[in-house]
Amino acid sequence: MYIDRLIWYFLIYAMIGYLVEVAYCSIGERKLVNRGFLHGPWLPIYGIGALLIIISTISFTAHAPLVFIVTVVLTSAVEYIGSWALEQLFGVQLWDYSRYRFNIKGRVCLKNSILFGILGLALVYLIHPFVGGFVSTLGERTLSMGSHAIILVIAIDTTASVMGMVSFTRLLEQYNKRKEEIEERLATMVANSNTHLLIERLKEERNEQHERLVSRSRSIMTRFPSATSHNERRKGHLASLRLRLDEALKERTRDKK
């Protein structure tokens, strides 16, 4: 019963986190921005963070400053570990706060940590009393069946998202390998005038490979516009992708006008 309630809390706060993230990023970008590693309208990192805050602060909710400090520490730790784990799995750092002051390896920054602290206060004193009351009105059967359904849906979405990310990272590596092969061949042929047509074809193939990568990575790069990597070669490819996607967006905007 208690575990079922936690699973419901996880989903509700993951969905609230998604809405907050989308609204925050959309206002900053002045356009609708979809966010999140998963396909569904939920961000598990917010669900996990909310559960940790609720469980950790339950014994001292009367002390708001302490709730704020604990929230800042917990959410920063979750965000840092999440960024590190995803980079270990896929070789790509999906968000980068390096442009903000007081950041730690671009994974967390003081500005966001303070915002999370404020959200933590809202969670403990405004949101959770309402959400907890709502979940309490659900019958035991509804809680149990719902929690099983939540686990199934999140598991399916996670599997699909992981497979998509693996496909993206493989494509990125394939592109890099083929690009290097083409550039090596071009370097050996450039002095030979008889190979002009082949040189042009290799250049075309290099561009085709790049456009294929851009097309396949559009969704991921849109959801994680600051994605980067500590691998300089991969970091360069991600920057190139971001630039090409920005150019494509500007071209579509001009066409509409």
Q: Strand share of the residues?
A: under 5%
Percent helix among the residues?
over 70%
Gross morphology: elongated
- How would a textbook summarize the main sheet? 2 strands, antiparallel
Radius of gyration, Cα only, in angstroms?
23 Å
Q: What is the domain tally?
A: 2
Distance between the termini: 57 Å
Q: Provide the structure class.
A: mainly alpha
Q: How many strands?
A: 2
Unreliable segments (pLDDT under 50, ≥5 consecutive)?
Answer: none
Query: Mean pLDDT, as a whole number?
Result: 82
Q: Which strands sit side by side, in order, in the main sheet?
A: 1-2
Count of DSSP helices? 7
Question: Which secondary structure elements does this structure contain, and how are they paired or packed?
Answer:
Layout (H helix, E strand, L loop, with lengths): L1 H28 L14 H14 L6 H27 L12 E2 L3 E2 H27 L3 H50 L6 H28 L8 H25 L1
Antiparallel strand pairs: 1-2
Helix pairs in contact: 1-2, 1-4, 1-5, 2-3, 2-4, 3-4, 5-6, 6-7
Characteristics of this structure?
mainly alpha, 2 strands, 77% helix, 2% strand, elongated
